[in-house]
């Protein structure tokens, strides 16, 4: 019954829900872009300087253990109310799978192939960029896919900092004890998570070299 009322509210407020969904995707996409821009190079870097891998990944794990509301509360005094602290918070939570998967992909390249590259006169930098990186693409894309789903989920918290998104309906419903309104925000969020996961799986398949596809 409550689900039916939630679906009815989505239909009745379809313009508002659509607008919030677009905003939700924009915020999560920006956070994912930032996390990827930081996480992929960082994963590549610690694969070359492996002594740094344990502290870097350990720090990322530690930060992920911080509750999202606590982290958001810490970022608001630094970045103000609105979109900036929310994007920063989401990017931080999205960073870990991208760094870990990039690192794993880079270090799990067959040693024989690396030795062949060295035998051909390739420098370590060339081996990293021309050999390890292309072979690590499936791992990297899997990390970005996890990060994308994580970003969409955590963007619901962004509403608490005034950033917008479907979380507005969820928190408004909680404040008003209005279950259909909560569902009007939760159902589209779940739909976005599934859609993003599907699209990222397609992108992962497209970007994976043909010889590495399962």
Q: What is the CATH topology?
A: MetI-like fold
Helix/strand order: HHHHHHHHH
CATH structural class: Mainly Alpha
Mean pLDDT: 87
Principal-axes shape call: elongated
Oligomeric state of the chains present here: single chain
CATH superfamily: MetI-like
**Helical/strand content category:** mainly alpha
Number of domains: 1
CA radius of gyration is: 20 Å
Give the low-confidence spans.
none
Largest sheet: none
Rounded to the nearest angstrom, the distance between the terminal CA atoms is 43 Å
Number of helices: 9
User: How many strands?
Assistant: 0
Question: What is the CATH-assigned architecture?
Answer: Orthogonal Bundle
Residue share in helix: over 70%
Strand content: under 5%
Question: Main traits of this protein?
Answer:
single chain, 214 residues, mainly alpha, MetI-like fold
Describe it.
- This protein has 214 residues and is mostly helical.
- It has a single domain, classed as MetI-like fold.
- It has nine helices and no strands.
- It is elongated and about 70 Å long.
- The mean pLDDT is 87.
């Amino acid at each position: 019954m409550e689900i039916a009322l939630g679906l009815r509210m989505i239909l009745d407020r379809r313009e508002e829900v659509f607008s919030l969904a677009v905003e939700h995707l924009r915020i999560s996409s920006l956070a994912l872009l930032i996390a990827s821009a930081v996480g992929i190079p960082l994963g590549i870097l610690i694969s070359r300087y492996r002594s740094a891998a344990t502290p870097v990944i350990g720090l990322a794990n530690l930060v992920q253990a911080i509750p999202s509301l606590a982290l958001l509360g810490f970022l608001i005094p630094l970045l103000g109310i609105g979109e900036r602290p929310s994007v920063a918070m989401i990017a931080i939570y999205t960073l870990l799978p991208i760094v870990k998967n990039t690192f794993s992909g880079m270090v799990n390249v067959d040693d024989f192939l690396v030795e062949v590259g060295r035998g051909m006169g390739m420098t370590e930098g060339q081996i990293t960029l021309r050999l390890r990186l292309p072979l690590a693409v499936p791992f990297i894309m899997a990390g970005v896919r996890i990060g994308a789903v994580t970003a969409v989920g955590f963007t619901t918290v962004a509403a608490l900092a005034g950033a917008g998104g479907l979380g507005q309906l969820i928190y408004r419903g909680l404040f008003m004890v209005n279950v259909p309104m909560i569902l009007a925000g939760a159902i589209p969020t779940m739909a976005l998570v599934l859609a993003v996961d599907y699209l990222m799986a397609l992108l992962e398949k497209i970007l994976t070299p043909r010889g590495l596809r399962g």
